[in-house]
């Protein structure tokens, strides 16, 4: 059987995140932000398991990205690729992961078998944070969440990728009118916080012009967003630029989906 780069968001929200990527027998996770038990069950539904994972890439040290890392590290001894400062910040929660660290920095290119993973910095309020450009077999996937704005490095990671997972964390009106304290609202909406539906929507037509054919909106806030709100914001902007979305036109330009907080969504075409 011909190998194909395939990816699934397993969990995606402000409560926990993990994405599975495979190319043949080469298999990796980006983040492990829910329990090892839940990740294992999600992988079992795809016909695989944690025993087949060759690497875990940790985008940053916040709990919704490392919650399951300690148990996975203790039981499966999978190498953990992230910045040493992230592991230092997470050492109390993930002591076993520290012993499996493969130091990784922005600008690095990592090969896991035939999967090429390029590491880029992101603007986020953590000690270090990364996004990724994943390539194999002539296909490419851009992955960028937890970004306060679309920096040049984020553009380098995602522009030209045929499939992209991009953050659409919050609706500005829901955030500003919601119950969060003013300081938290400023942090979320700040340049090192999270990407809004509106900013994501502005990026979407550019991605399409650069060759993206599959777009998944990810890391939605469960308090300041809804799947329909995020989808509508991005869909509306795409329509302004004449982009035809799968399900609306026979000859579609783009497949647009929203990642689920708990449940797999296939990313790639």
Question: Please, could you describe this protein's structure?
Answer:
The protein is α/β, with parallel strands linked by helices. It has helices at 36-45, 63-66, 69-76, 84-89, 95-98, 152-158, 172-176, 182-189, 197-209, 227-240; strands at 6-13, 16-23, 26-30, 55-57, 80-82, 101-103, 109-112, 115-121, 130-136, 139-144, 163-167, 214-218, 255-258, 265-266. Helices cover 29% and strands 26% of the residues. A 7-stranded mixed β-sheet has the order 6-5-4-3-2-1-14. A 7-stranded mixed β-sheet has the order 7-8-9-10-11-12-13.
Give the terminus-to-terminus CA distance: 17 Å
Which stretches are low in confidence, meaning pLDDT under 50 for 5 or more residues running?
none
Strand proportion, as a percent range, falls in 25-35%
Task: Classify the helix fraction into a percent range.
Answer: 25-40%
Q: How many strands?
A: 14
Shape: globular
Largest beta-sheet details? 7 strands, mixed
Strand order of the largest sheet: 6-5-4-3-2-1-14
Rounded to the nearest angstrom, the radius of gyration is 17 Å
Q: Number of helix segments?
A: 10
Described by its quaternary structure, the protein is single chain
What sequence of helices (H) and strands (E) makes up the elements?
Answer: EEEHEHHEHHEEEEEHEHHHEHEE
């Amino acid at each position: 059987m011909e190998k194909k780069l395939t990816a699934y968001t397993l969990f995606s929200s402000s409560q926990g995140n993990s994405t599975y990527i495979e190319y043949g027998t080469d298999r990796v996770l980006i983040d492990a932000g829910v329990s090892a038990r839940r990740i294992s069950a999600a992988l079992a539904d795809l016909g695989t398991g944690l025993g087949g994972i060759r690497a875990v890439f940790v985008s940053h040290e916040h709990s919704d990205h490392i919650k399951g890392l300690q148990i996975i590290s203790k039981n499966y001894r999978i190498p953990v690729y992230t910045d040493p400062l992230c592991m230092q910040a997470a050492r109390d929660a993930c002591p076993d992961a520290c012993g499996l660290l493969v130091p990784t920095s922005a600008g690095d290119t990592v090969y896991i078998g035939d999967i090429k993973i390029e590491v880029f910095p992101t603007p986020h309020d953590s000690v270090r944070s990364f996004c990724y450009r994943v390539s194999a077999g002539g296909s490419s996937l851009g992955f960028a969440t937890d970004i306060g704005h679309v920096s040049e490095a984020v553009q380098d990671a995602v522009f030209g990728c045929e499939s992209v997972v991009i953050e659409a964390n919050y609706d500005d009106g829901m955030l500003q009118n919601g119950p969060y304290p003013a300081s938290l609202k400023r942090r979320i909406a700040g340049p090192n916080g999270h990407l809004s539906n509106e900013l994501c929507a502005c990026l979407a037509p550019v991605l399409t012009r650069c060759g993206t054919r599959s777009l998944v909106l990810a890391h939605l806030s469960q308090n300041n967003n809804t799947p329909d709100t995020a989808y509508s914001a991005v869909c509306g902007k795409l329509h302004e630029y004449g982009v035809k979305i799968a399900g609306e036109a026979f000859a579609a330009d783009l497949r647009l989906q929203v990642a689920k907080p708990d449940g797999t969504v296939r990313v790639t075409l």
